[in-house]
From TrEMBL:
Keywords: ATP-binding, Hydrolase, Nucleotide-binding. This is ATP-dependent helicase HepA. It comes from Burkholderia vietnamiensis. It comes from the Bacteria. Residues 174-324 form the Helicase ATP-binding domain.
Length: 1091
């Protein structure tokens, strides 16, 4: 390949990191194959250091039309223009006032793609822009900074199409502000673990350069399509799927092993499936994760399964999270930890202020059980001493000692501080409640014959030798639900039962069951029930059937009755992505007034979300497992709004086993009144026992089973109490952070955000807006819109070169929409009001909520940072009634807009790798942003250097270049700078650079001495100190019971946390004071310019 010839003065780019993102520079020459490149910051600014790099990586650049260029004129003044045309050595440039000329490229400069370090040189060199642009840019930058502050750096939460909920945001915040991002998200079922994980996945892609980002989500096969849909519609990550973001089923994970080696984030959904020893796919997946999980820097395990349900399986999950704390070869030790936690859990539940006079008993229990815990004994003694003084329940010392003891117990005896668990009990508002069961009774023709054969087979099998557990369970399920398409005779033969009598009876059962299934009685009951329910306004019905054939028949019958109001749920794994047939049933969700009935088979019991609105569940038949009933209702009572869920059961009075079983589900397990997801392992063990008892005793066994389960002292309530107490130790406490309130306030300020965005993107930069409907005509209206790059007669009206636009704004462009030619690309659809992006119709259309974290806003932020327009302004302000004080005929005032932020820092981690370095830097930034919101201070300084504490209304009024009464403003463009009156030139501009620098120095000193600045710093440091004290207390509590490698690891993390806090303290104590805008305002009583 021939070498490219470069001449001194050519515009070039360096193609290698870290300079590839620095933009365009000037070639200064080369020596021995090493080229020198000089970048340009701003007119009058100190030039950046010269970069030396291999000539192989230095490439010539042709400037695109509309590129903003700078020229130092022979008069000594800087000129700012835009490129019209040309290449090579001569370029055609449009300067202000229609001054278009050919200019040697060597005489032009182009800003690099680095943030403007200081706008003051622009003001000094009279390279100013209209105040309108400065005000528009400032308003946009302020709104962006306020959103960052409210989100504490978790911009993925703001820019996702989700409701902003406190407990979910707290989970996300804890993960993303921890240098060790390895967590088990253990919220109870239906509370939104997928949303929490989705926000974290989105934040990962926001924080990581696309070329190095790779994330993998492992999920059961039934949930893969749901994950893909959520990541696309809620989190805007559809463009990343299958290139940088992979959703893989548990069963296919082995084929994906190579991808895990370079993964930066791994999410494992339904992680408790990994504990299934008998499943070869899950066992293989677990072995795979054992190899790779410890090398992946970010790990999220998702599981709602409580620890008491399956200690061995839970240990396997926790081992992936932390192999040091949870070795697989110490199951007995893990079980002891769980057992010792029970006493602690019961005491912690009792440690509430109103139990003041009964606390002594609980303290004695602790002393008996944990007398060797010296720190615990000290805290007990401290609390007992206060109790002995007979305090009130509101006594501060009493409350403090009680909280101190509770904190110590929770930190010592919780399983792991990186298990985050929210519970439905404390978040009852978050999901629709279950409102009980109504039964619809009918009698099947032929049920008596089928029932007689079932009893004959049960008695016959009792005389045989030991039967497989699988057979007992299957027979019980068939007895309580004969709709299941199962050949009893084939099952006996498959499991090795060849007794002639049993096989003959089984054949009779199959024949009578088929005849009973063909009957119309159950379908009649269904039709009458659905018709009755639809009499309730806005009600929608989900019909659950166990078998596809029943669902097909039910849908056909209901369509005959109700027509197009009925749809059949289908699962089509092989339909092309652009085939809408797979979405037909989703009209039940997107058009609830038109489609009111959805008929499902068992395939819809997992991986389908049907919540929201007034949903009613109709169980065409009842599965033989409470877990499957839970799965069905879990489709309807998930996180979000909705009416209480009422269930209807079609109950065949001819089948006593079915009646008794529904009684058991209703009164014993109470599955129609509350979630039983936490009882899944109790359900499995109880079902095994019941199947044995039923084979021996028949229907009476189901009735006795119900009696054991039900009641305040029954097996279910006792187990729930144990689980509840244990979960309380690991659950997240009451949310004390006000972060979600700040986010909510900022989110509700969408009208202010809309004004700032439209003012900057539309009016200042010249982007067009294309609305889906009518343009909003009042403040409360909000229509979906797209941003469009504007061209007229082939000439860009948008003030960004097309090449720069495509490069910077590429991720915001909707590649699937038909644009009006490639020269007018359209962005994705957006709305400003969050609720308008959350409807099912909006999600189906890909509507996004426009906030920080979205590619469009991020691109505009980048433009704000590297473009100098709007950073400096100057104007001549006239009021014919104004009394000028200065003899020059104009009074001079400077305006300086400062933004105060935590100081930037670069973390150093000895030998821990680039990923760990990146995570730590992000954590430092988020923590400092949470403690120190950006502070905006505007300082006015007069021409003599005095601070103007209370600027007049005339001085501070918004820019207005149209005469309004006696007032009008005149932007000082290059011509007007030259045309300023001689007296002004000699009075103010004679020492203009010194005057500007002195005014800026006085302004910055004033900022540092201001009460607002000092109080902001003090408050941030005080909050940090409180957090450090709390973390130290929690760490000391944990260390009190740790030993060996686990203790050493805790000590290492404490040292790391201390170093992190020291870095944050330094950033808060000496924050950055950035000059965002510098302006000069000349106040006068008349205008020296032509009108």
């Amino acid at each position: 390949m021939a070498a490219v010839r470069l001449a001194v003065g050519d515009f070039v780019q360096i193609s290698a990191a870290p300079y590839a993102g620095w933009g365009i520079g000037k070639f200064l020459g080369a020596t021995a194959g090493i080229g020198r490149v000089q970048y340009f910051d701003a007119p009058g600014a100190e030039p950046p250091p010269i970069v030396e790099y291999s000539l192989m990586n230095i490439k010539p650049v042709r400037l695109p039309a509309q590129t903003r260029v700078y020229r130092l004129h022979s008069t000594g003044r800087w000129q700012v223009g835009r490129l019209i045309d040309g290449e090579n050595a001569v370029l055609f440039v449009q300067f202000p006032n229609r001054d278009a000329v050919n200019v040697d490229a060597a005489d032009l400069q182009v800003r690099w793609n680095r943030p403007l370090r200081d706008p003051l040189p622009l003001l000094i060199n009279e390279a100013t822009e209209t105040p309108f642009l400065a005000d528009a840019r400032s308003a946009f930058a302020r709104q962006v900074a306020l959103q960052y502050a409210a989100a504490t750096g978790v911009t993925a939460a703001l820019s996702s199409s989700i409701e902003l909920v406190d407990y979910q945001f707290e989970v996300v915040r804890r993960v993303l502000t921890d240098p060790v991002q390895r967590y088990l998200l253990a919220d109870e079922v239906g509370l939104g673990k997928t949303i929490e994980a989705g926000v974290i996945v989105r934040q990962y892609f926001l924080d990581t350069p696309p070329e190095s980002a790779r994330a993998v989500v492992l999920a059961p096969r039934a949930l893969v399509s749901q994950w893909r849909d959520e990541l696309t519609t809620r989190f805007g990550l559809g463009d990343y799927l299958d290139d940088f973001l992979y959703v893989v089923s548990h069963e296919d994970a082995e084929e994906f092993e190579d991808q895990l080696e370079n993964t930066g984030l791994l999410v494992v959904d339904e992680a408790h499936h990994l504990s299934r020893f008998g499943d070869k796919h899950e066992s293989a997946l677990y072995r795979l994760l054992q190899v790779h999980a410890q090398c992946i820097p970010r790990l999220l395990l998702l599981s709602a399964t409580p620890v008491l349900s399956d200690p061995e399986g839970f240990l396997r999950v926790l081992h992936l999270l932390d192999p040091v704390a949870f070795p697989l070869d110490d199951l007995d030790g893990f079980k002891r930890r769980i057992a010792t936690r029970q006493v602690v859990a019961e005491v912690v539940a009792a440690l509430v202020p109103e139990n003041l006079w009964s606390l002594t008993v609980e303290l004695e229990r602790l002393q008996e059980a944990y007398g060797e815990d010296i720190v615990l004994m000290e805290k007990i003694d401290a609390l007992r001493t206060i109790i002995d003084t007979f305090p009130d329940e509101e006594d501060e010392a009493y409350l403090s000692a009680l909280a101190d003891l509770r904190t110590h117990l929770v930190e010592c005896y919780r399983l792991h501080r990186r298990i985050l668990r929210n519970r439905r009990k404390s978040l009852q508002w978050a999901t629709p409640r279950r409102a009980g069961l109504k039964r619809v009774q009918f009698k099947s023709d032929g049920a008596d014959r089928w029932r007689r054969h079932i009893e004959e087979l049960r008695l016959c099998l009792n005389h045989l030798n030991t039967l497989p557990a699988t057979l007992r369970s299957a027979l019980l399920e068939h007895a309580v639900n004969p709709r299941e398409l199962m050949s009893v005779r084939a099952l006996l033969e498959k499991l090795g039962v060849y007794d002639d009598d049993a096989l003959e009876i089984a054949g009779a059962i199959d024949r009578s069951a088929n005849r009973m299934r063909d009957g119309h009685e159950r379908l009649d009951a269904l039709a009458a029930t659905v018709e009755h329910i639809l009499g309730t306004p806005n009600a929608q019905v989900v019909v659950f059937c166990s078998e596809r054939v029943d669902a097909d028949r039910a849908a056909e019958r209901l369509r005959h009755l109700l027509g197009v109001q009925v749809v059949r749920h289908e699962v089509c794994a092989d339909i092309e992505e652009d085939d809408d047939s797979q979405l037909a049933w989703q009209k039940f969700l997107s058009a609830p007034t038109k489609v009111r009935v959805l008929v499902c088979d068992a395939r819809a019991e997992e991986g389908v979300n049907l919540h929201g609105g007034r949903k009613v569940a109709v169980h065409f038949d009842m599965p033989g497992s409470p877990n499957r009933c839970e799965q069905r209702l879990g489709r309807l009572d998930r996180f979000g709004t909705g009416d209480p869920i009422v269930s209807y059961a079609l109950q065949d009075e001819s089948n006593p086993d079915e009646v008794a079983w529904i009684d058991s589900l209703d009164a014993g397990w109470q599955v129609f009144n509350r979630s039983v997801a936490s009882l899944q392992y109790l359900i499995e063990s109880a079902s095994q026992t019941l199947s044995e008892e039923w084979l021996a005793r028949g229907t009476i066994a189901i009735l006795d089973h119900n009696a054991i389960l039900a009641g305040p002292n029954g097996l279910v309530e006792s187990e729930l109490k144990r689980i509840d107490l244990q979960d309380a130790l690991d659950a997240l406490g009451e949310q004390v952070s006000d972060a979600i309130d700040l986010i909510g306030e900022r989110d509700q300020a969408w009208r202010e955000w809309r004004v700032a965005f439209n003012g900057f993107a539309g009016k200042a930069l010249g982007f067009g807006v294309q609305y889906d409907g009518r343009r909003p005509t009042n403040d409360d209206a909000d229509e979906a819109f797209r941003i469009v790059y504007v061209l007229r007669h082939g000439v860009p009206q948008t003030l960004i070169p097309m090449g720069g636009y495509l490069r910077t704004f590429l991720q915001s462009i909707d590649g699937d929409v038909a644009n009006d030619g490639s020269n007018s690309p359209l962005t994705h659809r957006y709305v400003f009001r969050r609720q308008n992006a959350l409807t099912r119709a909006a999600r189906a259309q890909g509507v996004r909520v426009l906030r920080v974290g979205d590619p469009l806003v991020k691109s505009l932020e980048a433009f704000c940072n590297y473009d100098d327009r709007g950073r400096a302004f100057a104007m001549w302000r006239v009021d014919r009634e104004y009394e000028v004080q200065d003899p020059s005929g104009a009074d001079l005032y400077f305006r300086f807009d400062f933004i105060i932020r935590p100081a930037a820092f670069v973390a150093t981690l000895n030998g821990r790798g680039l990923e760990a370095q990146s995570i730590l830097e992000q954590v430092l930034t988020r923590k400092s942003q949470a403690l120190f919101a950006p502070l905006f201070i505007r300082i006015w300084v007069d021409g003599a250097g005095s601070i103007i504490s209370n600027p007049s209304e005339f001085m501070a009024a918004p820019y207005n270049d149209i005469w309004k009464g006696t007032r009008c403003d005149f932007n000082l463009n290059p011509r007007r700078w030259r045309d300023l009156p001689h007296a002004v030139q000699t009075s103010w501009l004679r020492s203009w650079p010194v005057l500007c620098a002195e005014a800026r120095r006085h302004a910055e000193v004033t900022v540092r001495q201001s009460e607002a600045y000092c109080q902001h710093v003090r408050q941030a440091l005080t909050t940090l100190d409180r957090e450090v004290c709390l973390r130290h207390a929690q760490t000391e509590s944990r260390l009190a019971r740790l030993e060996g490698a686990h203790r050493q690891r805790e000590l290492d993390e404490r040292a790391s946390d201390d170093a992190l806090c020291a870095a944050i303290r330094s950033a808060l104590a000496e924050p950055e004071i950035d000059l965002d805008v510098a302006g000069a305002v000349f106040l006068a009583s008349d205008s020296p310019f032509e009108q």
